[in-house]
Write a structure and sequence with these properties.
With about 230 residues, this protein is an all-alpha fold. It has two domains: about 90 residues, Ankyrin repeat-containing domain (Serine Threonine Protein Phosphatase 5, Tetratricopeptide repeat, Alpha Horseshoe); about 110 residues, Alpha Horseshoe (Serine Threonine Protein Phosphatase 5, Tetratricopeptide repeat), CATH 1.25.40.20. The protein has 13 helices and no strands. The termini are far apart.
């Protein structure tokens, strides 16, 4: 009984160690992968993966290669990594950003759709989320797509900032209206006590501020009380 228990246990440990050796990569391989991801050298990336380097390799700064490729517009490498079943699209860099967030920020609608529909990337995450990033640069279609696939319209960043607040700086009236028409809460305040109306004031977006204040009166039957006002 005792020896029959120990053998499979030791065999399992051996397999773990052996598989770890297989998936390990050298410093030179990491350097080569980083360069290839930045400069869209799909042949080099294909060779590295064939040699056993994981597609989830991090560059020396802790950035996953997929994020590096998206950031540097290396779309051939991006496609190759997405085609690999072993690629984890939800890995984040040291700032907590994942591939979907970068694609949403850059306005890459086709890539956003591929990440969500084919690779099942998480649409929601704690802290900054893809919808914040899409709203920041005024990307209406991407915001609409994320919403259609379950994005939380009042998602809170670590500073309690909402997508509506982030959309103000873009100046995209259509996006702001879309968010409001689909449940964005105009009353929410971030940790500094700012509402979207205060953010519009801060950015000098007078037309947007006035429009939001008018909407406030219609929604709540009272003038906007002003801000910022910290709630805690």
């Amino acid at each position: 009984m005792r020896s029959s228990f120990k053998f499979p246990h030791l065999f399992y440990v051996y397999l773990l160690c052996f598989s770890g050796l297989i998936s390990a990569q050298t410093a030179d391989q990491i350097t080569d992968f980083t360069k290839a991801a930045k400069f869209d050298d799909v042949s080099e990336v294909r060779s590295l993966i064939k040699a056993g380097v994981t597609p989830n390799t991090l560059d020396p700064k802790g950035t996953p290669m997929l994020i590096l490729a998206i950031r540097d517009k290396s779309f051939k490498v991006t496609d190759l990594l997405l085609a690999n079943p072993a690629t984890d699209v939800n890995l984040t860099n040291k700032s907590g950003e994942n591939a979907l967030m970068l694609a949403a920020f850059d306005g890459e609608l086709a890539l956003v759709k591929s990440l969500v529909l084919q690779k099942k990337a998480a649409v929601n995450k704690l802290g900054w989320a893809p919808i914040h990033y899409a709203a920041t640069n005024g990307h209406l279609e991407i915001t609409q797509f994320l919403m259609a696939n379950g994005a939380q319209i009042n998602a809170l960043s670590p500073s309690e900032t909402t997508p509506l607040m982030m959309s103000i700086g873009s100046g995209n009236d259509q996006l702001i209206k879309y968010l409001l028409d689909n449940g964005a809460d105009l009353r929410m305040r971030n940790h500094e006590g700012y509402t979207a109306i205060d953010v519009a004031q801060l950015f000098g977006k007078d037309d947007i501020r006035d429009g939001l204040m008018s909407r406030w009166v219609k929604l709540y039957n009272q003038p906007y009380p002003g801000g910022p006002k910290k709630t805690h």
